[in-house]
Amino acid sequence: MKKLAIIAGTMAMGLGIVLGATGVAFASPPTHTTPGTPGTPSCVGQSTAYLAEYPHYILDVSGIGNLATYAGATVPQIKQIIDQYCAS
Question: What DSSP string runs through the chain?
């Protein structure tokens, strides 16, 4: 479960990068280098793409299935983290 916390923290860290020093997120085209913004319609899709693609820079893992295996979790558990993040 510690690795699942790392995944959730990675998403929170990505959001912090989006907010930047001003604390305000500016509208821009979605990228897969940041998770989605909680409360927005695209949050789940953007965050899923982020976790499928971006962590390989940090963890040398790509794809939701491989990320789940790395974390000792299942894909539904990863999706639950994404849902909880986007609902926050």
Answer: -HHHHHHHHHHHHHHHHHHTTTT-PPP----TTSPPPTTSTTHHHHHHHHHHHTTHHHHS--SHHHHHHHHT--HHHHHHHHHHHHH-
Q: What is the pTM of this model?
A: 0.64
pLDDT at res. 1: 53
Residue 29 and residue 60: Cα distance in Å, rounded?
Answer: 26
CA dist 80 and 76 (Å) reads: 6
Burial class (CB in 10 A: 0-12, 13-18, 19+), 87: exposed
Name the residue among 20, 12, 39, 18 with its Cα closest to residue 30.
Answer: 18
